[in-house]
Amino acid sequence: MLYQLLTERARQDPGHLAIIGENRTVTYAELHARATDMAVHLQSLGLRAGQAIVLGMPPCVDFHAAMLGAAAMGLPSITVLPSGKLSNAVVEAQPVVAIGDRRFLSGASERCPSLRHLIGWQRGSGLGIPQSGKPLKRDTTFRKENILAVSSSGTTGEPRLYFRSAAMVVERVELRAQAHGIRADDVLLATRPYNSSAAINNQVVTPIVTGCSVVVHESFERFKIVRSISSSRVSVILAAPFFYETLLSLPHAVDCDLSSVRLCVAGGAPLAPSVARQFQERFGLIIRQWYAGSHMHPAFLYNAGGPPDCVGRLDGIFPARILGDNEQPLGSGETGEIAFYLPGFPEKWKPSVEGHPHRRGAYLYTGDLGRTDEAGHVYVAGRKSAIIKVGGNRVEPAEVEDVLRRHPNVKQAVVFGTQVEHADEIVEAVVEASGAVEEGELLKYCARQLDSFKCPRRITIKTSLGRTEHGKISRVLLEWAAWSALFFGSDSLASALLAGVL
Amino acid sequence: MAENVDREDIISRLKPLLLESVGLSERSLAASDLALVGEESGVDSVGVLRLVMALEQEFAIVIEDADINPVNFQTLSGLLMLIERKMIR
What we know:
Largest sheet of chain B: none
Helix content of chain A: 25-40%
Shape of chain B: globular
CATH superfamily of chain B: ACP-like
Mean pLDDT of chain B: 77
Shape of chain A: globular
Number of domains of chain B: 1
CATH architecture of chain B: Orthogonal Bundle
CATH architecture of the largest domain in chain A: 3-Layer(aba) Sandwich
Largest interface: A-B, 42 and 29 residues
Strand content of chain A: 15-25%
Distance between the termini of chain A: 55 Å
Number of strands of chain B: 0
Number of domains of chain A: 3
CATH class of the largest domain in chain A: Alpha Beta
Number of helices of chain B: 5
Low-confidence stretches of chain A: 153-157, 467-472, 483-502
Mean pLDDT of chain A: 85
Largest sheet of chain A: 8 strands, mixed
Structural class of chain B: mainly alpha
Strand order of the largest sheet of chain A: 2-1-11-10-12-13-14-15
Distance between the termini of chain B: 6 Å
Radius of gyration of chain A: 23 Å
Oligomer: heterodimer
CATH topology of chain B: Non-ribosomal Peptide Synthetase Peptidyl Carrier Protein, Chain A
Structural class of chain A: alpha/beta
CATH class of chain B: Mainly Alpha
């Protein structure tokens, strides 16, 4: 389905720019040709639909070609950071192909016994596959087949992969593109690495669905990216709040020409009102908030024109409620959990939420706290769930705890988030040691096994962790103690309190 | 432009930033050379950018894209030298 859409784009407007990369710009015809080369190569390897491939490349033309080529064969892509550290969930998915640079392939093949084919990629040289120029011979349109795997905690707190069909991905992107009014003459700016479904949806699939162009950068460098906004006449930015903070950090003396931009949207984490206000004062642009992305599929809220710090309205396409502890809707001004009201969903979307992992009864629970004003605008107040949000990425504490517990001298571990700035967090851990171990050693141990945004920034080592009357470790007490130590200083009263609490 | 750059002053102002921006612990900072970026640091690109933004604000300097490299950001001593160079200009 996705490949068919690409084929149609290439037929309708072959010379239209598809991807504006750092070293290379490709039209839709050229992108189609490269994706076809990848599909033909994958076909020659004797792969069959449903067998997964793991992609570990930075945002670049070759990534798009690889993923679209895989989609043409009905092969789901598991997209990870180029560091090559694959989670247990990825290994359990038993991918058969890995694509990335030498370092990534080395790490992936060490971790993943299921891999049968390694396809090399090199900056400047591209993908190590033949440019056959042959058309793809197949008679299957992959619509219900999975083309993308996303990582989520589900209801258990343990990270796992959820597979998305081509139809689901395209429908999701169509919904969002329609909400934002994205057109073929728009130029998107890719702002995220490609290890998240949000990045894939916004930056890889949206151009195919809408016919627009996308500007991609292999690395996140502020000055380079802001220059590209004006040089490529970027018109739409879909980014995490941290991206807008980064633009604000640029010295006023630096020429930041955002005159081509017509739409800025923030999603993945709450946008601090101060950031929204400063951004509007400096650049004359309002940042609109997008709430509840891929893990809440298909539901979302979008602030198309309300107060800047709201995320949408209760009576949007996917109606929402603020629920109290008794799961009854609350009135305006009261804080409760944001939940989507399933009976109010458009009919075509109801079947897709039947077995949703976050569904209970008539609601889809977000794990976020919120409130409304009298006009029905929704404001996010904080999080109810344990998920840690680091610069727009989601970190499952259970995944990091599992890594720490596998250290030979760690008996138990508790991981949580500590807020540092605006709504961003850092990962912290407290461990119960079973032998001699230093913080530095554990930090390096985590860095070898986890993507860097998941690694704890601080690890406190104790000989014993406190237990509640039920014998459970109190995550809440540990979080409070760690927050106090951060605020008051590690050699102060809070440190004594930490020792006392534990 | 600073005529005389006081290294001790920079260190005293830098350490709280490292603690707050990227969450490094006191014990980690006690090491004379500390990997701030790269494979074993645990500080990702977002963390590095947060640190860059905090440094610019604290020391009234501008850190270019080309300055963000392992030579300057791999170790505490490298970072100190970068800040000193920027302040002297």
